[in-house]
Specification:
By secondary structure, the protein is mostly helical. It has helices at 3-16, 30-38, 46-60, 66-69, 78-90, 94-104, 127-145, 151-154, 164-174, 177-183, 195-202. The chain is 55% helix and 0% strand.
Length: 208
């Protein structure tokens, strides 16, 4: 994934996360939100809608939804798997961070899924592109969680040229002295993404 394509994907994800999908009522119950999370008839922006719904489930704080979502933690589409893991992690279940962390180190074969920013030059599916997209998305989820426990998963990736720019973003989203110190390990190529983190440092930002 080149820097331009990655930047566009970052902007796209940041734009849709937190927006309320038009077909999901603002007062939807946790059970109704799970119904929408699992709805297979949402082909348009399914990934974005799922992540938004996952965020709303976390904010509602109802752990009773976890059994219904458990089977998604092993879905072959790593993006869908990650969205479910986001709920688990956000609601304090250890399986959530473990699943997302495993996505970062998973280089196994897989079918075509979601998240590839641009088609390959030959128009064919390449598993290496899907792996890169899945690992990128896992980093995004860790940043969106804003959980300081994710820092230990992110720091080793600062040496990965395929992900380090996104890792710097994720560390900035988490905030706090440990994350800022970890960002200082990044090279000049990715420091341009650190501006939001500087503001957090100046304002004494401490994540909840």
């Amino acid at each position: 994934m080149n820097i331009l394509a990655a930047s566009l994907l970052i902007v796209g994800l940041q734009t849709v996360v937190g927006a309320i999908p038009a077909d999901v009522p603002a007062d939807a119950t946790p059970a109704e939100l799970v119904d929408r999370f699992e709805d297979p008839n949402v082909p348009t922006l399914r990934l974005a809608k799922q992540l938004d719904i996952a965020g709303r489930l976390v904010r509602l704080g109802d752990r009773s939804v976890l059994p219904r979502l458990e089977h998604w933690l092993t879905d072959e589409d790593r993006h869908v798997r990650g969205n479910a893991a986001f709920v688990f992690a956000g609601l304090g279940d250890e399986r959530g961070l473990r699943v997302i962390g495993d996505m970062l180190t998973d280089f196994s074969d897989r079918p075509e899924g979601e998240g590839i920013a641009a088609a390959s030059s030959d128009g064919r599916y390449h598993v290496s592109q899907q792996i890169e997209a899945d690992r990128y998305y896992a980093v995004h989820l860790l940043g969106a969680l804003k959980n300081p426990r994710a820092i230990s998963l992110l720091v080793p990736l600062l040496d990965d040229p395929r992900l380090n720019y996104k890792v710097v973003w994720a560390l900035g989203e988490i905030g706090g002295p440990t994350a800022i110190e970890a960002q200082d390990q990044s090279d000049d190529l990715v420091r341009c993404l650190r501006a939001p983190s500087r503001h957090r440092r100046e304002e004494g930002f401490v994540p909840k």
